[in-house]
Amino acid sequence: MQPFTTLTAVAAPLEIAKIDTGVIVPGRFMRIRRRPGVTDYADVFLYDLRFDENDRTREEFVLNRPAYKGAGILVTGIDFGCGSSREGAAYAVLDFGVRALVGPGFGDVFVGNCLQNGIVPAVLPLPVIQDLWRQLKETPGSRMTVDLVEQTVVAPDGARYGFAVDPTRKGRLLKGLDDVGVTLEHLAEIEAFEDRYRKRMTWLASKV
Amino acid sequence: MDTAHLPQSRTMLDKIWAEHVVVPSADGEELMFVDLNLVHEGGTFMAFDQLRAEGRKVRKPNLTLAVTDHYLPSLNRKAGVAAIPNPAIRNVVEWLAQHTREFGIEHIGPDDARQGITHVIAPELGLTQPGLLITCCDSHTATQGALGTLAMPIGQSNQLRHVLATQTLWQKKPRQMRITIDGAPGPHVTAKDIVLAIIARIGIGGASGHAVEYCGSTIRAMSIEARLTICNMSIEAGARIGMVAPDDTTFEYVNGRPHAPHGQDWDAALKYWRTLPSDAGAPFDRELAIDAAALAPMVSWGTSPQDSSPITERVPDPASIAEPEHRRRVERALEYMQLMPGTPLSDIRVNRVFIGSCTNARIEDLRAAAQVARGRRVTVPSIVVPGSTAVKRQAETEGLDRIFIEAGFEWRDSSCSMCGGSNGDIVPRGERSASTTNRNFEGRQGPGAMTHIMSPSMAAAAAITGRLTDVRKLVR
Question: Which sequence spans correspond to the domains of chain A?
């Protein structure tokens, strides 16, 4: 996982509410293997919003407008990433080049998937989000900053807003630490737990 | 009474959570022990690819079970996996078989008599037991919370890879919400209608960040199958965890199933399971009360499960919605669904009907649908896809298959099928379906498909009349 400290990038307003993970990556694309070092999921990100049923680019869709090309931050609508737990949704965000999402709320499972893939989902109140959309539409191509160290989002007009992040996740994101590596440092504790567990839950002892 | 020296009252979640913490944390994520990890083929090949690339092994192969369900054809299964015409779909099915062999994991494959939808067969086999922490790379994992199980959805790649490599999971304890359901539901008001009414009330993000405990007299009177339906749709209100306290109904359900403890083990387990229900006075962060007696059969009209109303109502008018975000979303939903505001819901014509999925394809669901189908004829293409091979066999023993076939339904093999369309069973673009599934998102059943979700008896009624129908008027 790539570390995340602070990101300043072009931000795009994605004002549609409740974009579920099945819109982020339609189910028919969840059969693609993702090769190390290749952004295999970039093309399928929000496919049915970016392309029509004949696979032609929908020029009017916000992420297809030249000013928002290469956006690294998306300012999303309510409940972005609700629905199915498909991790491909987080891959697609990442492979598309987006490292931070700023929105009024995100699907729970999706948040977990983002944090484990080096994407910061920052929750800000809806009125703030609406103001960010307004600024990003007034001046397309504006840049924003998402600072994980300070836990702040900096708007195009310079206003700063604090956001919350789980302290464990923050620590690992800042260093780009992989979960499995961190966990296996606790292997002795895990084994001791399992010994105690077998004694407490005798009917499970033969399995654990 | 001075309660300061008494042990604090705890919820069921508090108790089960505490039993599984390996590395505690006061305010962040805790390392939790996983009793059972369930894997299906959808997207999970990425976790195995990553483990292989890192040279890692599965730490406790006997605590993971793999099941093929999402990509399996519901037709022509005897022809075998090699006959799956779409190579992209065939690959995904074959990869799970390869990966489970490679990593030494038990696999319930397409030809196994135990095959079915993961959340249907885990309770069926007695794998789902009170007090266990179960993970599955599927957002409907909370289904299994119906037995007093801490069942959690995990991501299909990184989080699954973590559970496979360590048998643990980093999790922050969620806030807790109690939904109390009292009152006797009227005729044809089912668990599905109750949970749709809850979601319509609180919204698709209404329980985000919370674990939900469903309780009250209505829940206590429910079968395990109905409780499974309620817990199944917890995620549609934003909750990753939904649970019902175990009681005698639970213990009777679990007892004697293939993986249930027996003899002395059963006695020890039962003693522990009886300690699990929330203590009187245990604190919840939020409360919601539902009067089941006041509910009618529900149908969805929009593109989110929260867009659901009693069948007796009309398509809402966005002009009457004050909040601009909400109004815009409803406008977009009606545009996608090609519906005019004010249309009576029972005037909406459908092109096809799907009875199936982890929400509503257990034997009680099929009995309810068959009761409506008996002696009638479908007027639109309609399929029944049992939730498991065992459910299918049971239904055939009871003669339900004959009822469906004589009514003109297709009687298929167990698969997730047209719920998400992973296996190619999709609703064609521009067509409208009545479906017993859990999601009516844009494109959920296929690009451009319009989905109305409802209970099995309501879906059967729609199959007969060709429109959304109040089953209470059809079956008097």
Answer: 6-166, 178-208
Closest Cβ opposite residue A31 in set B88, B170, B268: B88
In Å, the largest CA–CA distance within chain B is 71
**Does the CB of A103 have a partner CB in chain B at under 8 Å?**
no
| Interface confidence (ipTM) of the complex | 0.94
Residue B32 pairs in a beta bridge with B21, B169
Compute the distance between CA of residue A3 and CA of residue A101 in angstroms, rounded to an integer. 16
- Chain B residues 342-401 within an 8 A CB cutoff of chain A: none
pTM score, whole prediction: 0.89
**Phi first, then psi: what are they for B239, rounded to 5°?**
-90, 130
Give the residue on A whose Cα is nearest the Cα of B445. Answer: A27
The nearest CA of chain B is from the CA of A109 a distance in Å of 7
At B344, is the secondary structure helix, strand, or coil?
strand
pLDDT averaged per 10 residues, chain B (length 476): 62 98 92 98 90 93 98 94 94 96 98 97 98 96 98 91 97 97 98 98 95 98 98 97 98 98 98 98 97 98 98 98 93 97 98 98 98 98 98 98 98 97 96 98 95 98 98 94
Q: How many CB pairs (< 8 A) connect A and B?
A: 176
Question: Which domains, ranges and CATH numbers included, belong to chain B?
Answer: 12-19+29-171 (3.30.499.10), 175-245+269-294 (3.40.1060.10), 299-474 (3.30.499.10)
Nearest C-alpha neighbor of B212 from the set B146, B118, B156, B115: B146
Is there a contact between B325 and A27 if contact means CB atoms under 8 Å apart?
A: no
CATH code for the domain defined by A6-166: 3.20.19.10
* Angstrom distances, CA of residue B54 to CA of A36, A185, B364: 11, 17, 45
Which residue in B has a C-alpha nearest to residue A170's C-alpha? Answer: B28
Whether B421 and A27 lie within 8 Å, measured CB to CB = yes
Q: Closest by alpha carbon to A30, among B46, B80, B158?
A: B46
Using the Cβ of B55 and the Cβ atoms of chain A, whether some distance falls under 8 Å is answered with no
**Who contacts B239 (Cβ-Cβ below 8 Å, separation ≥6)?**
A108, B142, B174, B177, B207, B208, B210, B211, B212
On the CB side of A152, CA atoms within 13 Å amount to: 7
Q: How many Å apart are CA B106 and CA B177, to the nearest integer?
A: 36
Are residues A86 and B421, on separate chains, in Cβ contact within 8 Å?
A: no
